[in-house]
Amino acid sequence: MKNIAKLLGLLLLFSAFAMTVSAPVQAKKDFTVSTSSKPYKNKYVKNPVYNKHTKHYLTLRSYLDEMSKKGGGTLTIKKGTYNTSNALLVPSNVKILLQDGVVMNKIGNSHTKKLKAGHVMFECVRSSRINKKGVVGKYNGEKNIQIIGEGTVIMNLSGCNKSEAIRVPHCKNVLIDNITFTNLRDGHFIEVTASKDVTVQNCTFKNNLSGERCAINLDTPDKVTNGFNGKYSKFDKAPVLNVTIQNCGFYNLHRGIDTHRFSPNKYHTNVQILGCTFKDSVQSPIMMLNWKNAVIKGNTIDTVKGWSTNNIQKEKFAIYMRGGVIDPIISENRMNGVYMPFYAKGHKEAAGDIAARYAATYNSISAASIESMKNNILGDNCILRYFAINRKGTLYIAKSEKHYDKYYIEPVQAQ
């Protein structure tokens, strides 16, 4: 019995020791910060880069870095205005909860020569990877990230040209919910590159101040097209998979959602745009390029500026299939104030373009897809009440009907 008791004692001691050793690695950390918070354990406070312009960035980053070491957690940001000069690096298994009344301003000047201001507000890359070359590929970057607003939360880009609010590269399982993005300056509010299982919902995107870019960009990491510059990427041209954008509003923008560069034979697959509103776009609010099996359903597209033009080449469509589009389902959408509901063509970059070496990409649109496109509602302010699909070989928006096939939408008036 004594031997058994000793054995049990040793087992209990070993278990307690094992728990003591493993607990710090597994324990996630939750933090709450305000505009007056200092960095975690006063990190950076005595660093010369810490000043009134960088303090919010350095404070928030210090807590995210600690969460990265601890395996994740929740960062709650309290009501107030935060000025961020550089990218807040978001690691795996992190929820960022922005409370009602939070305003995140992207600023373009750190006011110190020792820290050059960046162009991204939130970047879903852990800090230990951000400065390494070619360490992340496919969908093997960060995972299980949530950026959620409670009440009214604003991300404002007016203070930095060519900036982005949220960049999602090589990630999986990302949620962006209930945030108002405003004042775009020749950048993107959200860029999703080589990521899968991404949801953007209940968000508002508004006010293009300058440039001809879209609110949400879907891209491949491709050195030839140079659309993405995160040096940590392996630039493996991985497309996005399973991206859902739902119940969002897009107002007074150049374009809402698009892909404007492509990598050959790489298709953004299962992009779903559901129940969104697009109003007062300069160009077609949705532009598809190398999208496969997209679903665009139940949206309202109202007024592409200049819709009453008599020139089809002005590109005042509700949805523009620029090239490489395979079997989309486009149905139950309401469209008004557009020149034409949809236009589909092939695409090749022009001679002299950085990606001119890539061969043309063509659409493959089945009879079932074409039937789905007939199931949409046109308002009175739609000049052409049919959609057009170019015949193969035509790589431009054609003025003449001899270059495309046209399909009429049933004459149901918007209610």
Question: What would you say this structure looks like, in words?
Answer:
The protein is mainly beta and 415 residues long. It has three helices and 32 strands. It has helices at residues 2-26, 55-70, 367-373; strands spanning 31-33, 73-77, 80-84, 88-89, 94-98, 102-107, 120-123, 143-149, 154-159, 164-169, 172-177, 180-185, 188-193, 196-201, 204-210, 214-219, 241-246, 249-251, 255-258, 268-274, 277-281, 286-289, 291-292, 295-297, 300-304, 317-323, 329-331, 334-336, 340-344, 377-378, 386-390, 404-408. The strands form three sheets. Strands 1, 2, 5, 8, 11, 14, 17, 20, 23, 24 and 27 form an eleven-stranded parallel sheet that branches. It has an eleven-stranded mixed sheet with strand order 4-7-10-13-16-19-22-26-29-31-32. Strands 3-6-9-12-15-18-21-25-28-30 form a ten-stranded parallel sheet. The relative contact order is 0.07.
Summarize the model shown.
This protein has helices at residues 2-26, 55-70, 367-373; strands at residues 31-33, 73-77, 80-84, 88-89, 94-98, 102-107, 120-123, 143-149, 154-159, 164-169, 172-177, 180-185, 188-193, 196-201, 204-210, 214-219, 241-246, 249-251, 255-258, 268-274, 277-281, 286-289, 291-292, 295-297, 300-304, 317-323, 329-331, 334-336, 340-344, 377-378, 386-390, 404-408. It has 415 residues and is mainly beta.
